[in-house]
Design goal:
This protein is α/β, with parallel strands linked by helices. The protein has 7 helices and 7 strands.
């Protein structure tokens, strides 16, 4: 009952240039990758840096990501009304994706709502502003969101927590 990964580091990094040509700009490994795999991948990525596209934001812009897309946003943008995590979340997300929204603001207050959020995050094509009054739920949501979440100060969480989430998980503070 033991899983074995027998791919050599050079084989692991072999298709990196093809991924870069398709627009991939974030690389890494998972279980089974060793220091040698990451070292080889890092060396290949560094050699391709001039080909990797990364938008450069202006002073009044931020870069936020959804699960699949990079968004350059004006920091003065009014995020607007929030969506409550509930049984209609999938429909609300699809509506926001199709309308003239730039960010989806979602309120998550308990474990049930967190699970609804996590189950539906694959639908989100826009960046997400996560709102919660619970430090524990906020940390779990930011940690488990498959993008770079935004925080707009609309909840009363300690600044130390927000700073920690920013440092640990890339939470964007507006």
């Amino acid at each position: 009952g033991k899983t074995i990964y027998d791919m050599a580091p050079l084989c692991f990094a072999k298709h990196t240039e093809s991924f870069v040509s398709l627009g991939v700009s974030i690389f890494g490994g998972c279980c089974g990758t060793s220091f040698g795999h990451i070292e080889t991948l890092s060396r290949v990525v560094r050699s391709l840096e001039s080909k990797i596209f990364m938008p450069s934001p202006e002073e009044d812009e931020i870069i936020a990501t959804s699960e699949t897309d990079i968004h350059v946003l004006d920091v003065t943008y009014d995020i607007g009304e929030e969506v409550v995590c509930g049984p209609d979340l999938a429909e609300d997300i699809l509506d926001r994706n199709d309308e003239d929204y730039r960010i989806i603001k979602i309120r998550i207050e308990d474990e049930d709502e967190l699970e609804i959020f996590l189950e539906n995050q694959y639908l989100m094509k826009l960046p997400v502003c996560i709102v919660s009054e619970s430090p524990e739920i906020m940390e779990k949501a930011v940690r488990r969101y498959n993008g770079r979440a935004v925080f707009d100060n609309s909840s009363d969480l300690p600044s130390e927590l927000i700073e920690k989430l920013s440092q640990s998980y890339g939470l964007i503070k507006l």
